[in-house]
Amino acid sequence: MLEAGKRPAAVLVVDDEKDIRDGCERILTRMDLMVAKADHGLAGLEELERGRYDLVLLDLKMPGLDGLEVLKRIGLDHPEILVVIITGFATIETAIEAMKLGAYDFISKPFRPDQLRLTVDRALEKLRLQAQAQRLEEEKKRTLLDLSTQKSRTRAIIEALPYGVAVTNTVGQVALMNPAFNLLLGLDRDIPAGRPLSEYVNDRELCRLVEEVSQGGGTRPGAEQESAAVEFSPGRENYLLAQCTRVLNEEGEGLGAVLVVTDITQYKMLDRLKNEFLAKVSHELRSPLSTIHLQLGLLLNDGIAAQSSKGQNLLSRAHERTMGLITMIRDLLDMSRIEAGAGEEREVDLNGLLEAVVESVRPQADKKGQGLSLELPEKPLPPLTCDPTSLESVFTNLAANAVNYTPEGGRITVRAGLGEGRLKVEVADTGLGIEPEHLETIFEKFYRVKNEKTRYITGTGLGLAIVKATVENLGGRVEVASRPGEGSTFTVLIPLPER
Fold first, then answer.
1. Closest by Cα among 393, 405, 272 to 330
2. pLDDT digits (tens, 9 = 90+) for 168-216
3. Cis peptide before 110, with omega less than 30 degrees from 0?
4. pLDDT tens digits for 125-173?
């Protein structure tokens, strides 16, 4: 850890772009810092083993070992080193993942010299404060400093932190908050502590989370700490990430919680721009691809291609590939619409919607000789107010997956019912099934199970991500039960309004 007055701070720059490495070196050496460079992740880890460093400037996107994997290893092997992520590919997902892995800060490419100097100065100040706190702790053990002196010094350290920090007791009352917390939440600088958190933060979900963690709700058996994170917005264009950690005494009893708040507005804006770009490009590509797909179909059907088996094969492959691209574009548009919260809500006839979904995939099932059935309760299902297009995509994706991953002659059953005030829809098949190690990740974007049995099944890997996001937006959840070689059952549970 950096010790003031002992040696200059040492910084390691890990980036595969030479211009970035050299530029950082020029800026940092003028700050009287020792600088070393590495052009890929593995070289950076090797340099950390050889030298003594206080700060690492780490690129996320590098060949070989990527930045997140390097960040994990630094956290395990060198937890005392601060890591600042430098990347041109920052999104809210990577920001949250990097923070959970211990990243101190983010700086987006391209950056100005003053931005880099400010970020590095802030990181080094944190290191100096940590060193000071460690010396104070050691001094306390040696000289048994008065408790009140220790409290005042701890408060000084907390107030100097660049992130918003608030400490609550077991009933959710704020015992301490620093100036950065007041600034991020738009509170008056001199507002006193001592009130419930809900009087400072106008976000019901965050207050509920802090109260639950403060009281020890949901803690894992044997866990020393329990942390949870939530995003919220105190203003129209202001987005914050709050991470709440339970505080325990020496006997393992809960004393309250520490709430750390970080401004993630710029990452939200980048994410929004990404979604707008994807939507625009997808719209522009869909029409010409649909036209090409239709023309290929006409060529295949009118017999021209039949004059040559080679021509027939080439046209069939082209026809299949264009259909794959059209499906990918449709899934990208669906995902962009879900993330943007778009869609017109109206009352949906669930019976009619499920019947339409089953009929839409029936030609594919018939082509493979599969049995496809729909089981509905005798009494019609109550209507649900939502975006019908989004809800239809949920069951269409599940039914289409069941057909795709079930061999010829198999069975697919779509079963709907009610229970405990919820709509329950099961899509069961007698297909390939899913290995247990894949069950936790199949709902991630672009994730596909790849093995000898699935290599010829086309798909984008977005279908189940769309299902999960849509159902969670409706306040529900998706469950899956599967056995390799025996089939899978996906269950959608959506709460229904009280009547």
1. 393
2. 888 888 888 888 888 888 888 888 888 888 888 887 877 888 888 877 6
3. yes
4. 888 888 888 887 776 665 544 544 555 666 677 777 778 888 888 888 8
Contact yes or no for 57/15 (Cβ under 8 A):
yes
**Average pLDDT, stretch 483-497?**
90
**Tokens 């590098």 belong to residue:** 62
Strand bridging mode 82-87 / 55-59: parallel
Distance CA 86, CA 88 (A): 7
CA–CA dist 408, 105 (Å, integer)? 53
Q: Using 50, 70 and 90 to split pLDDT, how confident is the model at 218?
A: very low
Tokens describing residue 86: 């430098």
- 389-422: burial string, b at 16+ Cβ within 10 Å, e else: ebbbbbbbbbbbbbbbbbeeebbbbbbbeeeeee
Which tokens sit at 60? 């996320």
